Amino acid sequence: MTSMDGVPDPTAGAGSPPATAPATHLDGGLVRRWIAELAQRLRAAEARLTELDAAIGDADHGTNMTRGARAAMAALAEHDEDTAAARLVAAVGHSLSRSVGGASGPLYGTWFNALGRSLPPELPATAMELATALGAALDAVQQLGAAELGDKTMVDALAPAARQAREVAGSGADLAGMLRIAAGAAEDGAVATIPLRARRGRASYLGARSEGHQDPGATSAAIVLDALRDAADA
Amino acid sequence: MIQSVDRAVAVLLELQGARRLRLTELANRLSLPNSTVHGIVATLVTRGMVEQAASGRYALGPGVLRLSNVYLDSNELRLRALSWTEALAERSGCAVRVGVPLERDIVVIHHVLRPDGSHQMREIGIDIPAHGTALGKAVLAFDARRAEELLAAAPLPKLTGRTCVDGEELAEQLARVRDDGIATALDEAILGESEVAAPIFDAHDAVVGAVGIVLSSSAATGDRLINDEVRRTAVSISRELGASAWPPRSRPRTSAGS
């Protein structure tokens, strides 16, 4: 493997693929890589999500999310290679609403759907456009579930992620850099749910017993953003 | 109202909410002097209603569990509902709940699991704001005093984005419940969950609670057969409790307290 001026590239092993640069825009290809990465991570996390949900719920979050990932992949397969990011993301949202039960289906379906509807319809999205769309998706989820920060839900991961994405995109961060910050904020937000008392969903029926457990919805939301970050980082 | 008894109950309710509290935290929450609260707590500890952990903090004691067990075992509504709710769960394939009103909530006093062998949370003892649950609407529709009190507190808290929090809208819903005796709630307490419920009346012809099924919102099609099953169950339980008709044609024959 030689670099552009003919000098052999010492960092590339013989026969290794060309190093790719991080994505600068959210396009259809990145959406597909995101969902593929997400499906893989959710399968790997299924047992953990199940365990978290068994502590404060019906123990079905793991299987719900895996089922959702399968449905999302199937939905993407129905679209042409050159389909725009916005349409693919919205299609993922519809598939989740249809195929995943409980609260996760409507919530993630709404999040992806609103995200897709907020992205530029045909062109790849910039970091700023994605940050704005993350805000719109959060708003839609809060409309549906009436959850606020601190209620021990996915909002505890998604809200800090959206806020920090907007901040760093506004200061000129590139897509990959913004997603690294956003995913980190989501992860921290998920961990921060541990001491909280649940005020939404079935976990709220447990009252004080819901304290001391990480919220499964916030955990999976962090996984969703982790997957996007990794897909963009290439 | 006997002040010391009222304060003792207040101590128990604070411990129910916060789980574990130091004496000073309790006194703070109740706006009472430490010495006053100490006397109350010491009495409750002697009676086993409160216990003190090694950390020094206070919590509810085993005496409270004994009381609640006896409540369940001797509650006539619950006892009369046992076999009817079992049958309703089997016929509907849904989880079944029986609830009674307590202040602005419904407390679930009986719960039959969804008969599909799945892992489910036990719901006996949970309380849900009445306006967000079909059980609550079923009760409120026939308990004018309680409904009036609740509607005066509008706008009511939102449990989900779909919870009805507007007093007028809720009043309209309650009027429709009086038409056919069926109350519904769609994604109004828990996203993804819907309910169908009907009121239960006692020998005073007063509404004492409600029975309802819980189903996933995707399966909630407004099926009239399901509504009929729920209604039949409520009628059967009410008959066993001595209600003269369902729903009763007249006001409660005597004041039923509550």
Brief overview, please?
Chain A has 234 residues and is mainly α.
DSSP summary, beta strand count of chain B: 8
Report low-confidence residues of chain A grouped into runs of 5 or more: none
What does the radius of gyration of chain B come to?
20 Å
Q: Proportion of β residues of chain B?
A: 15-25%
The H-level CATH homologous superfamily of chain A, spelled out, is DhaL domain
Q: In order across it, which strands form the biggest sheet of chain B?
A: 5-4-3-8-7-6
| Fraction of residues in H or I helices of chain B | 40-55%
How would you describe this structure to a colleague?
The complex is a heterodimer of chains A (234) and B (258). Chain A has 234 residues and is mostly helical. Chain A has a single domain (28-233), classed as Serine Threonine Protein Phosphatase 5, Tetratricopeptide repeat. Chain A is 62% helix and 0% strand. The longest helix of chain A has 29 residues, at 28-56. The two termini of chain A are 19 Å apart. The mean pLDDT of chain A is 92. With 258 residues, chain B is of the alpha+beta class. Chain B has two domains: 3-67, Winged helix-like DNA-binding domain superfamily/Winged helix DNA-binding domain (Arc Repressor Mutant, subunit A), CATH 1.10.10.10; 75-241, GAF domain (Beta-Lactamase). Chain B is built from nine helices and eight strands. Chain B has helices at 3-18, 23-30, 34-46, 62-74, 76-92, 134-141, 144-152, 167-180, 224-241, and strands spanning 50-52, 58-60, 95-102, 105-112, 127-129, 183-186, 193-201, 207-216. Chain B has a six-stranded antiparallel sheet with strand order 5-4-3-8-7-6, sandwiched between helices. Chain B has a two-stranded antiparallel ribbon with strand order 1-2. In chain B, a hairpin with a 5-residue loop joins strand 1 and strand 2. Residues 254-258 of chain B have low confidence and may be disordered. Classes of the chains: A mainly alpha (234), B alpha+beta (258).
